[in-house]
Amino acid sequence: MSSPTWQVPTDVPGWEPAILGENGVDQLADQDGCQYTATLNPAEPTPGVTDAEATEQLEQGYIWSFDPSQEPQHEQSRAAVRTPEEGTVEVRRVDTAHTDPAGEQYRSVMLLRVLSADSTQLSLLYTCPASTFDQAELDQLLSQTTLLGVEPSDL
């Protein structure tokens, strides 16, 4: 099996590629201030720590990255990203509402997973001003995004 790679859609109406294939980052942006970002980062394996435990640590780090002055509100759940041949990789999902330093309300969805066997942290982030957040649009983007180079797996 090859290294994990995101395959993100690049021809979605209303979205333009902002970054493609730079340092493990692919990003699309739209005219409403929304961004859809797929990242792959190296992960140092920790002996005796399962993927589920490492993913939970990554999830907590993401949650703690918000400044309390942004009044973040988080909702955590599980989700899945597609692999080829209709398989899926289970991930953690964090829905967040927060206020940026200028006072604008934002909503975001972060999907996270650590794949220890591949020494990889993967994430997908959809973030928008709260007034333009669109769950149907996110669902469309996710349905067109595939994680290549990994076997389907649960947490």
What key phrases describe this protein's structure?
9 strands; 155 residues; Protein Transport Mog1p, Chain A; 2 helices; mainly beta; DUF1795 domain-containing protein; two-stranded antiparallel ribbon
Can you describe this structure in just a few lines?
The protein contains two helices and nine strands, in the order ββββαββββαβ. The chain is mainly beta and 155 residues long. The chain is globular, with a radius of gyration of 15 Å.
Draw up the topology in text.
Elements lengths: L4 E3 L7 E8 L2 E6 L4 E8 L8 H14 L8 E10 L5 E12 L5 E11 L4 E10 L5 H9 L2 E3 L7
Antiparallel strand pairs: 1-9, 2-3, 3-4, 4-8, 5-6, 6-7, 7-8
Organism: Micrococcus terreus
Protein name: DUF1795 domain-containing protein
Task: Write up this protein.
There is one protein chain. The protein is mainly beta and 155 residues long. It has a single domain, classed as Protein Transport Mog1p, Chain A (3-Layer(aba) Sandwich). It is built from 2 helices and 9 strands; from the N terminus they run E-E-E-E-H-E-E-E-E-H-E. It has helices spanning 51-64, 135-143, and strands spanning 5-7, 15-22, 25-30, 35-42, 73-82, 88-99, 105-115, 120-129, 146-148. A 7-stranded antiparallel sheet has the order 2-3-4-8-7-6-5, with helices on both faces. The protein is globular. It starts with a strand and ends in a 7-residue tail after the last strand. Residues 72-98 have a biased composition (Basic and acidic residues). This is DUF1795 domain-containing protein. Residues 68-100 are annotated as: Disordered.
